[in-house]
Amino acid sequence: MAVYTKISDSDLHHFLADYDVGRLTSYRGIAEGVQNTNYLIHTDKDQFILTLYEKLVDEKDLPFFLGLMEHLATHDISCPLPVHDKNGRVLRELGGRPAVMVTFLDGFSVSKPQRRHCADLGTALAKMHLAGADFSLQRPNTLSLDGWRQLSGKIMEKMSSRYWTWEGANIDSGIIMRIILDELEYLRNRWPADLPTGIIHADLFPDNVFFLNDQLSGLIDFYFACNDFLAYDLAICLNAWCFETDASYNVTRGSALMNSYQKARPLEQAELNALPLLARGAALRFLLTRIYDWINTPEDALVTRHDPSEYLRKLRFHQQIKSASEYGFEK
Amino acid sequence: MAVYTKISDSDLHHFLADYDVGRLTSYRGIAEGVQNTNYLIHTDKDQFILTLYEKLVDEKDLPFFLGLMEHLATHDISCPLPVHDKNGRVLRELGGRPAVMVTFLDGFSVSKPQRRHCADLGTALAKMHLAGADFSLQRPNTLSLDGWRQLSGKIMEKMSSRYWTWEGANIDSGIIMRIILDELEYLRNRWPADLPTGIIHADLFPDNVFFLNDQLSGLIDFYFACNDFLAYDLAICLNAWCFETDASYNVTRGSALMNSYQKARPLEQAELNALPLLARGAALRFLLTRIYDWINTPEDALVTRHDPSEYLRKLRFHQQIKSASEYGFEK
After folding, report:
1. Does residue A155 lie in a domain region?
2. ipTM of the predicted structure?
């Protein structure tokens, strides 16, 4: 949500001279993404997003992220396409940071997703999974079981030092730690090993899906993308798109999401069976990162902290679910 | 430098329905201005800046600021033009904030102004002063002598409580307080009373002047504009545009600024005589606000704090100046 690296007009002119993108007419720092600095660039030909990667993104992962966007964009998935400079390079440097220009996507995220948005999302997610099948690079999911355990350790260490509260809940730190440890243990013993895997987005929240004239116009922000169970990506979307603000589950939206996904990429029985478990895992993953961000963000920082208790309530919901049909899936 | 107020797509759709601006295709929060929330709006017809005024701007001043922009834009000064809705209103409300849409200006600020930029600036500043002559609203300058005294009091109170340092200087707080009080006393006894007055921008730093293809393309950010001595605006520009980063004065740029101003609006002898004094006042004004911001901004806030000592060095420079000719002014 901030411009961490300031770019001067002369640096930008110098940088853009290597591209065939037209003449610079305007550039503005935009408040997008917590991790990187982004500029919206206008030229007399077109618009672009220029991203400077701050230290939170591991440079060695950039070829994977950028290669994936290019792979998907050239396989009929609407997402930002990295722009090659005149020498064919995508990954450059600007202001001492790795820097990439991507095409600008029209559209904007919806703050209150409806049934039709979830239906479009399901189709787009399935198509993205299919399009990713022949992408050659690999990146393990650092935020799966092992990552959750490490994150839990850091959280336990910090949470035991003082009493923490957040908007939605006044929960005793000890109780939260107990819930997290129990859930970790539960998932560790049951996490599947043999579901269909592939490229997943892993962070496909409403913020990262654009609509234009009520049609899905693009997917953005692939900086958590990795190889993992495809159905886990669906479970993340169930968490991110199909709950009301009070964390009650909206089965209409869930049904639209799952059944449109199923039409484009039929789920195997094993995936359906695993869905409640995967949804618990996804809820735990966002519970953990939100707690971590909450307790590590200064209270007066100009960054929106997301209420972790939202995912505590979602986790509790998934703990009650016995089968995919309860999410609205129709065989 | 931040998006303080988040706007949902449905709120924005509702808001834009009252305007004849085309269909929304994209909106992004932009990192512009420390005081307000700004969105860059794309429609299928054009681009606009949507500003939500945060609490730092006094609502009662908005008719002055918006009226001034409209007055100047319709008097041949390139600046953002407030957009009227279908009912003729300019000042609206969105997200619980006063909200205004203005036209988008092509161009961008130069980080290292050259002689030609200063010459263009001088012409634009003089033209703005002339165009403002028949603007009917008035707003006193709250950051002149009285304002400086009040600000000094607040700074003294806070600075006496601990030792402060900033990048450019390790100066004893007591010495800084002495310099400020001496300068205030000096200016109070000599500040002119009878120079030509009118509408001044009062914050025309390089950030607030856009260039396109090396021609000045517009002036922005009128939220310090007020009625005061016209030559004081020129003195602010001398401070903001004509020093090197080490605070040494660049007489080539100063000469370009002053002499191009003079061609469009000839300065009276009294204004020229007062210029060194006005330049001291301008340096003190920015020294005070920078110190105030520095000691009131948390060190870990995601906001760029400007080094106050830059203006201490500029103030000392002006204290040595005897006449406008030393700034490069040619009779």
Report:
1. yes
2. 0.84
